């Protein structure tokens, strides 16, 4: 596929020879007993046989529309059975889903459709707060808009799931199976191509590490489109090991706890703000959540003191996960001593993951010192999709991905995340590219210059503060006005600043860059 950077041949040979890569495809992950419940969504319960059939029929429906191997389809769906069916249908015919988040709006979706040259865009009719996705779809240039619900002028998803036809087209293991979204550090979002074989390895190795089996009942509270909930081990890891996936619309205890009680959920993946809510909610909720065995926490740093509370308060094990959609996953192990589980963000999943911790000149730091984490391995990308200039900066010449995370490694191999070098805000696990937000702010008529930084927050980890230099003879916009402005530009709401500060000029570094550290320090 043009725009995809493959692994060099020597690595390909090695990963196959050493058994990391197989010929198994993403479309073949449904490996449970045909009569076992695979998916629970609201009142709907589907066995492995049901889900397999629905996925096949929907695959045939996409194929009838002329969508097939090598095509891209942007999907923007909440945590519904339709997400799972559409995902499986597309990977079966070798059309790669581009996984947008439900919060994305015209700005992000328009760009994703354009960059991926998507043949179709799949949406629900309505979303949170009654948001009408069909309105968004009218702004997008794609051949087919497919709607789960009332389609208006578009194609109903139900019309795809019509006949039993064999799916003729199948992808190859080395094909791109799915595109994940990068958290982003630049003006425009980046797409992460994940091949069938690297993502299958990702989800199978994760499921093994986490001890998933047919008795696993996994609750999805993060967006299903997020790498963590999808494949670490996530929905796909459950399917590959024959367990049951339960979809929750959100991580709110009001929605999640009754599902845990009703379905006897055993495992869940959460970001720290959700884990904190749960720790708190136990004292006032009536639900019986004693079936829970394991809470995975990742996406942002989970404080050691909080991790230590999980077994006491929720009466289950905790696992820290330091992952990235680009690939590398670090997990604390289920049998790690409690100090490592509480104080570290885990160690790499695979024996074939290569890790370097380097200083500003790219030299390895002394063992135990803090530096930037570089990595390559059998499930870490070698380049973003169609982004040669950015790739030249994001990868070393020998193919290590520069994570932008500052870490220190213990003799056991476990990593502790100490900070970040990349220009990104991590707002409770939601990633915001400072440059992307600054570019939107600069389009405002009163804003002369903008610099976005993270500010510490006890629940979210960080919130977003935008420092603004206002144009002479204009009135500084209020936070409310800035949010309305960003909304009209079609920016996802999680990227909106939480606070504005106006300044006359920005402090500068010796090389003339905005001194963001000084700006952030001025907030405390
Ligand atoms: C500190 N920072 C963390 C952690 C991610 C599992 C879990 C998370 C993600 C994810 C994921 C962190 N402590 N425990 O895809 O499969 C920050 C780092 C990292 C970035 C990646 C998964 N866990 N982070 O969060 O692509 O800065 O993936 O580089 O959204 O989140 O973000 P993302």
Automatic annotation (TrEMBL):
InterPro entries: AMP-bd_C, AMP-bd_C_sf, AMP-binding_CS, AMP-dep_synth/lig_dom, ATP-dep_AMP-bd_enzyme
Domain AMP-binding enzyme C-terminal: 436-513
Domain annotation AMP-dependent synthetase/ligase: ranges: 32-385
Name of the protein this chain belongs to: (2,3-dihydroxybenzoyl)adenylate synthase
Organism: Actinomadura adrarensis
